[in-house]
Amino acid sequence: MNNKNTDPKICFATNLKRYMELRNVSRKKLSEDINIKYSTICEWLKGTMLPRADKMEIVANYFNTTSSRLLEDPNAEVLVYKYPFVTKIPDGYTLEQASDEFFSGWGVIQHVKQVPNHYGLTITHECNPMQPRYAKGEPVSFKLTSFVSDYDCDYLIRRKGHDAEIVRIYEDQEPPFIVEDDENDDREIIYYVMIPVYNEENNYEPYHTFNLSADYEIIGKAE
Fold first, then answer.
1. Domain 79-222, CATH 2.60.120.1690 — does that match?
2. Contact partners, residue 105, CB within 8 Å, separation at least 6
3. How far apart are the first and last CA of the chain?
4. CA 196 to CA 100: how far, in whole Å?
5. The predicted structure's pLDDT at residue 1
6. pTM for this entry
C-alpha cells in the first residue's frame, strides 16, 4: 500500500501538528505568538487551507525549520547520510586517505530526496581576518563537486603542492580579452580570482587563473 500523500495542504497540516506537539504549543498560543487568527490556524490543521508564502515563512521561522520541510510528505522515506569531517586534506591524499588519518567527527544529513555526497573540514585556526566567515573549531560542510557552478561562493580547493583550503571564487571584473583561434572561433578568456578564506599557511594573497580545472583541484562547494 502506498501511503504517500502529494496534497500539500494535508502534508502541511500533518507536519504542523507534529511540530506543535513537539514544542507543546497549543492552537491558541500559536495564534497569539505569530499573530494569525485562531480560525485560520484551525483551517490549516484541518488541511482545508494552505498558508500564503509569507505566512508559511512565519510559521517556519517560529518552529526553526524551513517552508520546504513543512510541505514534505510526512510518510515519505527519510534518507540518512553520514559523512566525515577532517582537520586537513594534504597534497596527494585522496579523501578516503585524509578521512583515515585526519578524521575529526561525523556530519549527518537527513532528507527525503537523494542526498548529494558531502565532506567536511574542521577549522583548526583563525581565518583570513579580511574574510572572517568561519570560527576556529567550526566544522564546515561541502557538497562534493569538481567544477565551479556559482561565483561569489566559498569552495574547497587544492593547489599543487599544498593542503586543501577554502577560497571565495569570483569572476574577474576586468573586461575579458579575445584569443585568436585558427581552428575555432575566437575565444573569450575570462580570468578568475580566488580569495583565500582559510588555509594552513596563513597566506591570503589572491590567486588568479583563467583555467580553474587545470590549475586547481576543485573539491567541494560550501553548503
1. no
2. 84, 85, 120, 122, 139
3. 36
4. 26
5. 38
6. 0.64
